[in-house]
Every structure is written in C-alpha cells, then in structure tokens.
Amino acid sequence: MTTDTLRAVLCCAALLSVSSQAAPRYSPEALLNWQVRDFAEHTHYQLEPSAKGTRLQANCQPGQASARYIEQKVDLTQTPILSWSWAVSGVFRGIDETSKEGDDYPVRVYVVKDGGLLPWRTLAVNYVWSSAQPVGTHWPNAYTSNAQMLALRSGEPSEAGAMLSEQRNVREDFLTLHGEDLQQVDGIALMTDCDNAGQPITGWYGAIEWLPATSAATSSPSRR
Question: Which of 18, 111, 127, 148 could form a disulfide with 177 if both were Cys (CB 3.0 to 4.6 A apart)?
Fold first, then answer.
C-alpha cells in the first residue's frame, strides 16, 4: 500500500494491538499519547487548558501533516455511536478537497475497518470539517475510494476555537458510504494537516467516546 493510500485510510494492520473495551473513551490526555504517523512534517499536538477543561490542540504550519491513531477493536453491535467535540481557528481558502492538491482539513476523525492480509480491503470513514464542501456532502478521498469523506461542518466557524459536539452512528455510516454492514471496526485516528493547502491552521479535539445506541441519539449535520 502506498504512502498516499496510508494517508487516506491509516491501515490498522501495522498498528499496535490494544485490547477491546465495552465502551472505549479517550480523554485529550489519551489522544496525545496515541501513536503518530507523519505524512509530511510533524503537526504539533499539545494539551491546552480551556474554560471547559483540557483539550488537544493541533497547530499546523505549511508543509505539516501527521495523524495520531490507535488500533482498538470496537463492537458496533454494542457501541455504534461515536461522540466527540472539535473546533477550528478557520478553514482553508481556495482549495478543492476532492483533489490530491486540496486534501487538507483543519480537523478530521477517521474510523477504520482493517483489511488484514488484504490491505486493499481496508475501509475508512473520515468525518471532516470541510473548507468548501456543503454540510452533509460525502465524496471519495482523492487518494483512494476505500476512504469516504463526510462533511459534518463546513466553512468558517461562527466563533473561532468554539468547541462543537458531534455524534454519529458509525455502523450506519459504513453501510451508507461503503455498503458494508460492519459488526466491528478496528481503529480510530485524528489528523490536522495543511501540507497541500500551504496555509497555517489550528484545530482542537475534545474527548472521543463510543456509546450504545440506546444512550445517545445521532445528530445529523445541520447547515449553518
């Protein structure tokens, strides 16, 4: 698998195995300790205190692109809901996110189904804060159709740095975007990158948590 494809799907076959939990939760402190994969220069991730608690700040300068990730099997029959919060300082100007030259996002969260010995069967759903694509739009990643992008937010935030909450039914999203009714996913990652856009950007991530369908309702992206 090429580096470009790894960037798109973050193939979990190469990651360190972590035992599964009933309902995994990852604090910002835990996110900082996830493994790192650099696709260009290293995006600088650090903890930042805020009025509502600690969050993970990702400060990206032109030429930087790196992800933080963990491999952890999650049973989607028990905990299909992914819940998290994120924020951005702004968005990129004048990019086409459907092209390789525009494949940058202020914040994104990946969920990955590992293809194991058949890496071309690795699938990913990428939840993104888009610079230009309308909310609710989905499209294949510019590097591989095995990774589908879904815009949950789009355009400049109403308040730079304000944390917004998201909840998605990952099992339903894999069925909609890949036609696969998965019982399990194998990894999760986050990335703030700006190597293609060549514009500085800052993103923030709050805690990420898997929840049972009965304890949370998914929130469809709303147009702002």
Answer: 148
Q: Residue 103 — φ and ψ, nearest 5°?
A: -80, 65
Residue 94, H or E segment: none
The number of helices, as runs of H, and strands, as runs of E, in the chain is: 3, 13
Residue 61 per-residue DSSP state: -
Question: Which amino acid is located at 22 in the chain?
Answer: A
**Do 67 and 205 meet the contact criterion of CB atoms below 8 Å apart?**
no
State the burial class of residue 67 (Cβ atoms within 10 Å of its Cβ: 0-12, 13-18, 19+): buried
Rounded CA-CA distance 187/114 in Å is 8
This prediction has a pTM of 0.87
Residue ranges of the chain whose pLDDT lies below 50: 1-3, 5-6, 10-21, 217-224
Domains of the chain: residue spans and CATH: 3-215 (2.60.120.200)
CA-CA-CA-CA torsion sign (80, 119, 40, 17): positive
